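Limitations

Structures in this collection are predictions, not experimental determinations, and the ligand pose is part of the prediction. Treat each record accordingly. The example that follows, with aspartic acid as the small molecule, is included so readers can see exactly what is and is not provided: the inputs are given verbatim, and the output is the predicted complex.
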Amino acid sequence: MTKRRDFLKISALGGLAFVSNSIKANMPKGTGFTATNGGKPLVISTWNHGLAANAKAWEVLEAGGHAIDAVEKGVMIPEADPEVRSVGYGGYPDRDGNVTLDAAIMDHDASTGAVSFLQGIKHPINVARLVMDKTPHVMLTGEGAQQFAREQGFKEENLLTEKSKQDWEEWKQKSDYKPIINIENHDTIGMLAIDKEGKVAASCTTSGAAWKMHGRVGDSPIVGAGLFVDGEVGAATATGLGEAVIRTAGSAIVVELMRNGMSPFDACKEATHRIYKRHKGRPEFDYLQVGFIAINNKGEYGGYSLRKGFNFAVHDANGATLQDAIYHYEE
Ligand code: ASP
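Predicted complex:
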């Protein structure tokens, strides 16, 4: 039986790419640590694959580039990596064997672009960016999104790798739609950045829940659910069971809580707690995992998850770290 935790577990830093000793000593892991340079620039993203993505984003930020460009370039790394089985090329397919992708990008001034249920395009985040820059709309979906991508010169390709195909065929033997928490089947990359000018931006890209129904769209491309930015406040993004995040307008809530004075960590914690309250007793609760990360305009950040197993990558002037999120539940 799941055990309620009143006190949250603080786990050790996961993998540590680089961090100085003085910083390490002062680092309250995910609790809203402010970098010594004032937190600007800074990039933070979900899961292990956030490390490589952040490194790319950091190049943009360090050179004085805009946060919006950093979050676009950064998440292209896991999108192109076939070993990342939950994003872009090589992502797990739906139950019919189709890789369908969702992505969104949002800037400090509420400029937004998103694509959902997009097939055959390796970098949905680039398509989302063009929806933002070149159309009067916020989201294009399915065949329409694909047509737009084609018109913009994107190459169509088969995104189902041999490995993902084999896993899908194995899954079909049982056809048991039961997501397993944190086992590589919902590991979206969500990325938040603040640039040298203090502007914030966010991106989010995913192949969604493995073995989902054909046509299913998760939280990641939905503004206010999978990501949200308010230039006056900060930004947030989510990972985990998208349906739960959509039901609760997860990322918008995190940003609104920060507007009302909460730290990024406290805001992520409160939004997670709401998801807990709304879902306790529902059938999906047994496998429900959600994680949020957030930054504010000061360059403070935080992360929190419902259950153990969520981590996030942080990159600032002091280097790169991977931090285990504090969580609500033991199991
Ligand atoms: N949130 C994503 C979705 O439900 C999955 C993930 O976080 O990997 O589509």
